[in-house]
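Hey, can you fold this one?
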Amino acid sequence: MKFQRTTVLVLSSDPAFARELTESWPKGADAPEFVLLEQDLCRELRRDTFDLAIADASTDAKRESLCHALAATARPAIVISADGPSHGRIQGAIVELSRQHEMWPATAALVGREILRRSQAESRVRESERAQAVAEADATLGRYMIEMRHSVNNALTSVLGNAELLLLEPGLPAPVLAQADTIRNMAMRLNEVFQRFSSIEKELSVVARESGKHSSQTRAAAGAS
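Sure. Predicted structure:
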């Protein structure tokens, strides 16, 4: 799966807050893109513009306003409070940390990185589930088509036979003969398509048998060791 860079929204009116936070964030391929936004604009937050928000709550009033705005987005967030809990606190999708501890930037970066990793893992799980659902639907359709191919082949044989009889019928107008010829050609084309389904079924059966043999040999080798 292709790596998609995440976005961390930093809500603060203090440039030093954003600088300390970004400087403490571990560097690497999974490092997010940081976007700085003034606290006064927190009511205009859109959940589709960021993956994680980190907010600077210097007062109780700002903390309450920020938590309310962030909770409305249903996105994970970290709120750094001046007098927050020393051991941290989790409320819904919001983690509250204290700014009183001198290591708060590193702690916020560590927590934020783990939140993003978990969010990405959950996204991969959801994507895999969607892909599996599509594959199962395709497999169900494929099995139905294979099961119905005999009935379709019988119907095509009847159509093809009647078209051949019409073409052999003397005295038919040219337009009728042309239509009968078209019916015969289309029936033959459909027959070729369903013959291909039969070939695919045989190929898949061979692959399944070979895969079963390989699995059995692997288990036998593991048991012998």
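Helices lie at 15-24, 60-73, 104-168, 174-224. Let me know if you want another pass with a different chain boundary.
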